[in-house]
Amino acid sequence: MNCQQAYQLISAAVDGELSCHEKEKFFQHLAECTTCTEEFNDAMKTKLIIKERIIRFTAPQTLINSIMHLTHHCAQESNL
Ligand SMILES: [Zn+2]
After folding, report:
1. Cα 75 from chain centroid (whole Å)
2. What is the per-residue pLDDT across 66-79, written as a single tens digit (0 to 9) for each?
3. How many angstroms is it from 58 CA to the middle of ligand 1?
4. Low-confidence stretches of the chain (pLDDT beneath 50)
5. Ligand 1 centroid distance, CA of 14 (Å)
6. For ion ligand 1, residues whose CB falls within 5 Å
7. How far is Cα 39 from Cα 57, in angstroms, rounded to an integer?
8. Domain ranges of the chain
């Protein structure tokens, strides 16, 4: 995967919409590429801010869990 391909997957990755295979390739690229890692972190932060506003009155643990789930490699593909 190159940066362009990774870049196209960032928003899907943030939303947890990548397939197991895509996720693996994507995070593999991130491990080697600081540029895409930063892009991904920025996108994640933006999502967190938005989500935080939405789920402020619900358990914050839910969000943490979903982030943990996103960063896990293929542990449970269809657990969303
Ligand atoms: Zn890259």
Report:
1. 14
2. 767 776 666 555 55
3. 35
4. none
5. 16
6. 3, 6, 33, 35-36
7. 28
8. 3-71
